[in-house]
Specification:
single chain, alpha+beta, 2,3-Dihydroxybiphenyl 1,2-Dioxygenase, domain 1, 4-stranded mixed sheet, Glyas_Bleomycin-R_OHBP_Dase, Glyas_Fos-R_dOase_dom, VOC domain-containing protein
Length: 131
């Protein structure tokens, strides 16, 4: 292993209005576990891997931006079965977009959390992801 290099991403910080409600939503829909509670913040892990750091914010900014009047996400999750996850989220009334099959680039869809933060989900079997 190289020393003094970035080895990955530790957390993605996400602003939310109601910390407990948002954390429960992510736990329910994605099986994350809650760790490291601090005043106004908490960490969400997948097993022992940090995923999201929710921070309570009374500001209306969210983890989304626009390009040519189209909302874009800042975080892409990966899955080994985009169709099953998409169907589950639809059945739970989560706001999701359609699945886009981009051939060699994989399959994608976007979803919104309770606060309007936008996320992308990606399935690609030819890309090695270490987790």
């Amino acid at each position: 292993m190289e020393v003094g290099r970035i080895l990955g991403i530790a957390y993605n910080v996400i602003p939310v209005e109601d910390l407990e409600k948002s954390a429960a939503w992510f736990v329910k829909h994605f099986g994350f576990n809650i760790r490291d509670r601090r005043e106004g913040n908490l960490s969400l892990f997948r097993d022992n891997r940090p995923i999201l750091y929710l921070t309570q914010s009374d500001h209306d900014s969210r983890a989304v931006f626009e390009v040519r009047d189209k909302k874009r996400w800042v975080i892409t999750f990966f899955t080994n079965d985009v169709l099953t996850l998409h169907q589950y989220l639809v059945s739970e009334d989560v706001k999701v977009g359609n699945i886009s099959d981009e051939g060699e680039y994989g399959k994608f869809f976007v979803f919104e959390d309770l606060d309007g933060n936008l996320f992308d989900v990606w399935e690609h079997h030819d890309c090695e992801l270490v987790y």
